[in-house]
Amino acid sequence: MKSVSPGGCARGAGLGALFAAAAIDSYYANASETINWPVVAVLLLGGAALLWPADRRPAWLTPQLRTGVPALASLLYTATSPLRPESLFGPGELIVLLSLLFVAVRHCPPQWVVLSGVLDGAAVLALPVRTYRNDMGPMTGFMLIGLVLVGLTAGFAAYLRSLDYRRTVAVSDTRRSERLAIAADLHDFVAHHVTGILVQTQVARMMADTEQGDLDPVLAGIERAATEALASMRRTVGVLRDSGEDAADRRPVGDLVGIAELVDSFATPVQRAVLHRDPAVSDDLPHEVQAAAFRVVQEALTNVRRHAGDATQVTVRLRHDGRRLDVSVADDGRGGSQLPAAAHGGGFGLVGLKERVTALGGELNAGPCDGHGWEVRAVFPA
């Protein structure tokens, strides 16, 4: 059995009420021997503006045109009512004008909202003039009722328009945050691997003349780093191309196990890297904490390659005291680097890293060690 949504039922009921009210207007307006063409014209214009399917609506039929023309036709009919012996208004025209007022306030461009809304509101308030222009009491009463209806309709439409604006802003902010996250992933993963390729290539060039027998491990490391860089790039491009759960599954991730692999792949014949992991550090830590810790180590090792090429020892420590996870990366370099200036980076790595750490309620510090060397340390609540 096919189900019907509440929204579809509401729209159907609204259309039924509109047709019924328009039929009442047409019946009373054409009760005499002659057809009251102004009423028919207003109802046809208003009905077409409201019921024209959005997917078949031509580009020139803008919201301001749809809401303004029927209102002008209604005002023109009201203005010429003294020339007609029987000028009436009924529930159909009232509902059409209030519906057009709703459309004007919610959907018209900002520069047209006031003009279109005023036209529709004025058309509603002017309706009693047709019948009660010589009787101020009933005319004033009907106008007050119309003023209340206009205020309620415009207020509700303005509220929904504000919700639409907030939703648009929220979607824009979410997309911007996602783009920043993707940019951070590109920096964290691809920059790390490409910098490693560059360093190992330099080592291979130095060994080419003196230690050719030891070149194979270095070349294997270059191949592995290039493969990982391409895989990271493919995952990130997958996030850009796709959406939903599948894209989330392909997003580059890291964990505590990945830190050990990161340290092992970092070592070169001239640089030694060791990992000291406290047995109290569990693999069951929250994934967000593990991913952030992985990126701390990754960024710190990348900076060692960029800015401390003379370092011979890099030490990575993972400690856990029951309440906090402490991640630190220290080197014994003095700041020497043989990398080209273009490979030193733009200085955004630690900025993005600090955002990641503080977002989890942690702290990030980077500074010189005692004597010489540099240390990057992050503390996460766990």
Instruction: Choose one word for the global shape.
Output: rod-shaped
Q: From N to C, what is the helix and strand string? A: HHHHHHHHHHEHEEHEE
Number of distinct beta strands: 5
Mean pLDDT: 76
Strand content: 5-15%
Q: How would a textbook summarize the main sheet?
A: 5 strands, mixed
- Evaluate the radius of gyration: 36 Å
Strand order of the largest sheet: 1-2-3-5-4
Number of helices: 12
Structural class: alpha+beta
Helix content: 55-70%
Q: Ends: how far apart?
A: 51 Å
Could you give the topology of this structure?
Elements: H1 6-29, H2 37-51, H3 63-79, H4 91-107, H5 110-126, H6 129-132, H7 136-207, H8 215-241, H9 245-249, H10 256-266, E1 272-277, H11 287-307, E2 313-320, E3 324-331, H12 349-359, E4 363-368, E5 374-381
Parallel strand pairs: 1-2
Antiparallel strand pairs: 2-3, 3-5, 4-5
Helix pairs in contact: 1-4, 2-3, 2-4, 3-4, 3-5, 4-5, 4-7, 5-7, 7-8, 7-11, 10-11, 11-12
